[in-house]
Amino acid sequence: MDKNQMMERAEILVGAVDDLPTIPVVATKVLQLLDDPDVQVEEIADLMLSDQVMTARVMKLINSPVYKPTQEITSLKRALVYLGLRHVRELALTTSVIDVFGGTSGALELNAFWEHSFGVGMVSKIIAQKIGYEDLEKAYISGIIHDLGEVFLSNFLQEPFMEVLEYIKAHPVKLIDAEAQLLGTTHCEIGLSMARKWNFPDAYCDVIEHHHNPGSATVDPILCAIVNISDLFCSVRGLNYGGREWISFNLSEEEAWTILKNKAPGLAQMDIERFCYELDDAVPDVSALVSAIFNSPEKAKP
């Protein structure tokens, strides 16, 4: 089955779900307000405070190991100043995606999914910094949302997706290949269809579609390559959906690694073993972050 056929199949599956979640209204308004170059922090804060769940998620992310503030931030306005308005868009988008699927259950264990997603986000940020990528937060958010299609499959195609998960336990095959074989499409096409419905920026759609084949990316191949390598690293370092998927890779043979070395030739001399130790250090932070995010949100101060 070719790419076009898999995309058609994905659009049919996503279109058939009448109760497909949507990005919360407040988040949509925040994203629209951020398009105004003269917007003030107070305007954004007042709007976000009308959605206490989203506000609490933002506060937990701000105080997480990802942003590492020197002391705890308890005021939303201070959090937005600390973050900078240019990154509020990404944070609003992330918290909205979490809220859309935060309370759902399906074929995948929810915490394992988010541990993988946030793990890829954090590793993407590390790699982006190493190669001099210009937007670390974009790399971080791209890592978080790259497997969005998996949540759809887990929730809305639960029984067929369970068959896929059982299949990869018994066969040395990647999840994406098993999806294509058994479902006629993959989480990449499903995720892209959802991202388009939610009007995600083109760069994020590119990552969702091409994080397994960054050489085919059309908007930002470097960003796709960052997420691809991060995905592989997390999959072999324990942030891997509970060990369901068979993964093995040689970094020097990966297409994404070639793309990144062209961007930053110094990567060829990078100490891979030391880098893996950095990932090991991040694993507890990721688990703690996911645990904190999915606790009952507390009210934030203005």
Summarize the structure.
This protein is mainly alpha-helical.
Could you characterize what this model shows?
This protein has 302 residues and is an all-alpha fold. It has one domain (3-293): Hypothetical protein af1432, CATH 1.10.3210.10. Helix content is 65%, strand content 0%. It has helices spanning 3-15, 25-33, 41-48, 52-62, 76-83, 85-101, 110-131, 136-145, 148-156, 158-170, 175-183, 187-197, 202-210, 221-236, 255-263, 272-293. Helix 1 packs across helix 12.
Comma- or semicolon-separated keywords:
Hypothetical protein af1432; mainly alpha; 302 residues
CATH class: Mainly Alpha
CATH architecture: Orthogonal Bundle
What value does the average pLDDT take?
82
Amount of helix: 55-70%
Structural class: mainly alpha
Along the chain, the helix and strand elements come as: HHHHHHHHHHHHHHHH
Q: CATH H-level name... which superfamily?
A: Hypothetical protein af1432
Topology at a glance:
Layout: H1 3-15, H2 25-33, H3 41-48, H4 52-62, H5 76-83, H6 85-101, H7 110-131, H8 136-145, H9 148-156, H10 158-170, H11 175-183, H12 187-197, H13 202-210, H14 221-236, H15 255-263, H16 272-293
